[in-house]
Specification:
178 residues; alpha+beta; eight-stranded antiparallel β-sheet; 38% helix; 30% strand; elongated
Length: 178
């Protein structure tokens, strides 16, 4: 569809440029011919600039399998407030290269109270790698469903749906205390 649009636009621009070539040839004026060339070349430079802009500022990042591995924490800015801060203090997620997901649960003192370990599968067959948690019949509310991946231009985050807390937003970075 985009190719058709570009061809249509370029055809219209070519029709606009043709009179400059005819007039320039008749009156032997190179400046008029150069204006015609400028009109023809402008769309190419514009398409290049638009492509660069889209790549840098519009297109969402694509994730590979290796980019998923790492530590994840609750992003308190997605749903700011006391609950998000509390979740940030009490939950951490680690995805290892051994295809193991570990959910760490902390108490108020920052000590690990419980670690839940699940096997995962990262499917790399799609444009973005997908995270699947096994087995599905887990007894812990955060890991009962596969997370949803949300991608931005420069970052991404996972949303785990919890029956107790609703959506929990995990972003990749090293864990830190407030």
């Amino acid at each position: 569809m985009a190719l058709f649009f570009y061809l249509l636009v370029y055809s219209v621009i070519a029709i606009i440029a043709i009179p400059f070539f005819i007039i320039g040839s008749v009156f032997k004026k190179k400046i008029i011919i150069n204006i015609g060339y400028s009109i023809l070349l402008f769309p190419f430079f514009l398409m290049i600039l638009v492509s660069i802009f889209n790549t840098l500022f519009v297109d969402r990042m694509n994730l590979s399998k290796n980019e998923i591995y790492g530590e994840y924490v609750i992003d308190a800015s997605k749903f700011a407030g006391k609950n998000a801060d509390w979740q940030h203090e009490h939950f951490e997620l680690n995805i290892s290269k051994d295809d193991i997901l570990q959910l760490y649960i902390y108490n108020d003192n920052g000590d690990i109270v419980k670690t839940i370990t699940k096997e995962i599968e990262i499917k790399d067959q799609y444009s973005n790698a997908r995270l699947n948690i096994y087995p599905k019949n887990t007894d812990y509310h955060i890991l009962q469903k596969n997370p949803t991946l949300y991608r931005n231009v420069w970052s991404y985050y996972y949303v785990f749906n919890s029956s107790k807390y609703g959506n929990m937003f995990f972003v990749k970075k090293s864990w830190y205390r407030f």
